[in-house]
């Protein structure tokens, strides 16, 4: 491990890597087989079944090809995702992607915790007669649920990466059983023909482009965490293929269940309300009972094991003084505090959609920049010893690669602009267009200026 005043580079040597194909596959299935993915499916149900299913597949494949590429970087170098951004953004410039990752993964942890706490309010109703969330006095169950889930999360991150492996190995089996059960119950309630032909009310209908941007924001969050886990495997196939297949399986299955369960509930009740797309509300209305709520809570823990690990890695890269274990405790406590926001600020759906829009805006350019830097400009070769060297290869100007910062700012501005161009915003969305733009702009500017290019 290299040291030189800017902190150590925690590269994992090949001999110390023990994640198997199944471990990696289970990690990424578990990352997406959760409440948030179900909720996303419920949100894009506003497109209608065919459009929602098509955009789900297209956005998933594109996003997780990028995940496989980022995962390869971790496998080759043994470094965390945010440490790797020092090469493209500069040793000090990597603070920008680290802040983005810290905020987004704390946000995702809060999202999953809130949905799980909602499930716990239903459990408390069955056990103690407390009002469920959404009814007068229902906030008490959610508050207690948030605190209980936060204790679970503190326990899950207390032993670091090993806890992720253990949680995913156990959780993935129960998740599969639950999803199969959920699928059977939904199709017993309504027919596939009814789901296929259902259309949302015109005033609530979502365009394909809007759905792609929602899905892209959801999927791309994992791309910036890929190396945090692939650095623990010494086999390329585990890092790339297992990550791609696992993430897509978790996404397709759980989001698909979210789509059909939300549509099925709308048909059954003759009323569609995207605010009621969370799995707890749907499970309750479909009569899935106590066990369903337990599994929903478990999936929050499996997903947040990944979210909190990535947020902790980002914080460690930012401070370069805190150990990973301390960082994990810090981000878990912050996530607990953030989870209370929907109780006091706005509805959960309002905060969630604003959160997704912000993620899509800032993540796409970051991903385009660090992938092009590694695969095109550096030809898949980084000098790890220079990751902590002042005036080394990745120092640029004062520790910042201002070209990367400029491209990121311009790309974010383009995203905002494209969201107001109806022909793009309503058809293919702005996110993937901006990723391609950031790749081209960064690659060409770096080539033109001949800075740090081998």
TrEMBL record:
One cellular-component annotation, GO: plasma membrane
Family statement drawn from the similarity comment of this UniProt entry: Belongs to the purine-cytosine permease (2.A.39) family.
Protein localization: Membrane
Transmembrane spans: 38-67, 95-117, 137-158, 170-190, 210-230, 242-267, 287-306, 326-352, 358-377, 398-418, 424-445
Source organism (scientific name): Secundilactobacillus silagei JCM 19001
Identification of the protein by name: Purine-cytosine transport protein
InterPro entries linked to this entry: CodB, Pur-cyt_permease, Pur-cyt_permease_Fcy2/21/22
Molecular function per GO: cytosine transmembrane transporter activity
């Amino acid at each position: 491990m290299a040291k030189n005043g800017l902190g150590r580079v925690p590269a994992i040597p090949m001999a110390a890597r023990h994640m198997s194909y199944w471990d990696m596959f289970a990690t990424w299935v578990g990352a997406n087989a959760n409440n948030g993915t179900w909720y996303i499916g419920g949100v894009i149900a506003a497109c209608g079944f065919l459009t929602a299913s098509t955009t789900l597949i297209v956005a998933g494949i594109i996003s997780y090809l990028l995940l496989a590429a980022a995962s390869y970087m971790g496998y080759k170098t043994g470094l965390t995702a945010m440490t790797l951004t020092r090469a493209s953004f500069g040793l000090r410039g990597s603070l920008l992607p680290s802040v983005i990752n810290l905020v987004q993964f704390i946000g995702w942890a809060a999202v999953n915790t809130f949905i799980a706490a909602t499930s716990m309010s239903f459990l408390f109703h069955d056990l103690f007669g407390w009002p469920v969330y959404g009814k007068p006095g229902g906030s008490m169950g959610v508050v207690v649920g948030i605190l209980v889930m936060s204790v679970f999360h503190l326990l899950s991150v207390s032993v670091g990466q090993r806890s992720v492996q253990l949680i995913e190995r156990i959780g993935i089996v129960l998740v599969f059983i639950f999803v199969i059960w959920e699928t059977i119950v939904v199709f017993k309630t309504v027919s596939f023909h009814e789901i296929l032909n259902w259309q949302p009310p015109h005033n609530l209908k979502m365009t394909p482009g809007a759905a792609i941007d929602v899905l892209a924001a959801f999927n791309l969050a994992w791309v910036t965490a890929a190396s945090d886990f692939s650095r623990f495997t010494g086999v390329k196939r585990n890092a790339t293929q297992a990550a791609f297949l696992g993430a897509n399986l978790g996404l397709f299955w759980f989001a698909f269940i979210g789509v059909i369960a939300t549509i099925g509930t709308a048909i059954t009740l003759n009323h569609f309300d995207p605010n009621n797309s969370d799995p707890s509300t749907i499970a309750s209305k479909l009569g899935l009972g106590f066990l369903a709520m337990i599994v929903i809570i478990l999936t929050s823990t499996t997903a947040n094991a990944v979210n909190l690990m990535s947020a902790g890695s980002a914080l460690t890269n930012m401070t370069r003084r805190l150990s990973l274990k301390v960082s994990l405790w810090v981000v878990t406590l912050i996530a607990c505090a953030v989870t209370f926001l929907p109780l006091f600020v706005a509805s959960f759906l309002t905060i969630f959609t604003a959160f997704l829009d912000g993620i899509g805006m800032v993540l796409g350019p970051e991903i385009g920049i660090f992938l092009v830097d590694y695969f095109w400009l550096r030809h898949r070769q980084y000098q790890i010893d220079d990751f902590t060297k002042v005036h080394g290869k990745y120092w640029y100007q004062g520790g910042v690669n201002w070209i990367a910062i400029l491209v990121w700012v311009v790309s974010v501005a383009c995203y905002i602009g494209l969201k107001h161009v109806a022909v793009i915003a309503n058809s293919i969305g702005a996110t993937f267009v901006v990723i391609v733009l950031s790749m081209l702009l960064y690659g060409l500017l770096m080539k033109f200026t001949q800075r740090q290019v081998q």
